[in-house]
Amino acid sequence: MGRRDPRIDAYIAGAADFAKPILTHLRTVVHSVSPDIDETMKWSFPHFEYKGILCGMASFKEHCAFGLWKASLILDENGRSAEQAMGQFGRITSIDELPSDKILTGYIRKAMELNATGVKAPPRAKLTKQKNVVMPAELTSALKKNRKALAAFDGFSPSKRKEYAEWIGEAKSDATRDRRVDQAIEWISEGKGRNWKHEKC
Of 107, 43, 104, 26, nearest to 73 (Cα)? Predict the structure, then answer.
């Protein structure tokens, strides 16, 4: 049987009121897939494992997040790009903003299959030639208003700065761009790269 971690109970209990039902729902959906899924805390956030990490969830002041460890091998096969999702599922503020239980359980089953067969996530392509980063005006403006984020961003490698710039620059609507800028400033202030959830500690 999968191991339940009391630290996750405490994490959910300490989350904001809006976040508690979201985290509880995600936890229930994950465990509905298999009784062999274990819980643990990694990088101060709840994670779920089956022969390796499957997925993780987190709660912030005004939103929650849910991410699949091998998203690039799972979401692309379901007709979605990792850019659409938190993680891959954006800033979650209610259960209604999550994919259906059927879709989520499908993602988790696929993640279990990948781990069970030893499939590794593909390595990120290395840049052979560093190009100048084109900074979106919205990100530049937001950074100027946040000294901590600006200092952290200036200390990032060109590739990390480029990941944020491209993510925001590729937004298809003003609303999406604004959400991404807000999320970027939060993560940058914490010294995190755009893909920090997939980076090894």
Answer: 107
